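Two records follow; treat each independently.
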Amino acid sequence: MIEISNLSKRYGKQVVVDDLSLKISKGETFGFLGQNGAGKTTTIKMIVGLTRPDEGKITIGGKLVDDISARRKIGFMPEAPYFYERLTGMEFMKFCGDLFGENNRSESEYEDILKMTGIFDAKDKAIGKYSKGMKQRLGFAQTLVNDPDYIFLDEPLDGLDPLGRKEIKKIIKTLQGNGKTIFFNSHILYDTEELCDRIGIIHKGRLLYAGAVKEFCQGKPLEEKFVELVEMQQ
């Protein structure tokens, strides 16, 4: 389980995340929704340990996120993945694997991940020559190098064409079938509705809703209900 308790973050006088509490069960796919600037990315960075909260506590699998054993079980794809563009795709994957210190993956296992994410044919090409969509796929691929139990994705479908989105959704569904716990931010509400067991909606740093997608939608499209809820806060 991922448990977030009374989480807050400020930058100067601005409250970015305000007393946020959530529980995400093991094996669940949870979609975290909100407008630009609502606090989604700040929240996910605190969960994976890249940013420290001013208040609150985060546990992953019963251990504080500061615990190295908890971090070893995490895979994270940032909204704008950064690459050493002179490296090839395969070199980058090996580099990411080595960061875990106890990486035992073989080259064929890295190749399997690159095949899964649709960029195997570009494994020996310099990343600087990749398209935006290819870089997005590589960002997803590096998330899986340590075979994580908990996968955090910040806008994983951004920058992909319709076929790429379909393929990444297929990968997420495969990971769901393998019992992975998945937490992702997204602006693409149609895909969120399709993929998620539960959702959370954040607005100006405060949680407005957390629960099942069907209970929130009540027979209407997720996008329509999301807009209704946010407009009520204006």
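The next record belongs to a different protein.
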Amino acid sequence: MNKSPKQISLENKILDQLKGKSLQAAEILFADEELQAMQDYANNVSIKRLGYNDHGPVHMRKAALNALKMFNLLENRGVKMSLEKEGIALQEDSMLAVFAASLLHDLGMTVTRDTHEILGLELARPFIEKVLNAVYSTAEVATKVAVRAIIQESIFGHMATRKIHSIEAGLVLVGDGSDMEHGRARITALLSEKPRIGDIHKYSSTAIDKVIIDQGEVKPIRILVKMNQSAGLFQIEEVLYPKIASSPIKEYIELYGQVEEEELLKYI
């Protein structure tokens, strides 16, 4: 299994965030060679065939790490996940769902960009079942059903084109949208030979230096997007902010943008 140093580094950071059932799930999925091959192929389709930015193993791990950081920030402030609030499952079950959905959310890119979130539901199914069957006993069928549903909702809703309702799915949505640093568009920029419609996504992405997720001053989560030029504002206003605005976790987020050393721009 060929994994890049960046991918391995992200996996180690993710493992540090996990415990219990979610840690067991991560160990299973990180060792799955077919999943690795699918994520690699998703990147081939996205970058080489379609000219989009990274939708492969590094992106899916960054999205997972972002979502888990926010999960822990909410937990630290006493915010309960939807499954626990509704008396259906525990926080560790929600953590498993958030991690698994984030890691699997872009498998539909192995086929095409259009409705890849719907295609991804079917492509993710065997990996979801592999993990749930390994982690949950036959006596935990109700919890297993709920976790599966949250994973499916999260994959289905990660493009912010369809309404989602759980905090867990909201974390996956915003975790995905927060992966927009310049490295994500690096290969696409190198391969580009002529201008094309949609290049604003590539150029605005290269303007993003860092996305920092930490504890907010008033709300549990603070997202700061640091840019080297104002083109990066497109990424905030057209990609990240719409995802936050349609997410069930909007009320818990402070969003800022900053170009170089200029004054902070507060969005929410």
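Discussion point: Confidence is low (pLDDT under 50) at residues 183-192. How would you locate this feature using only the token line?
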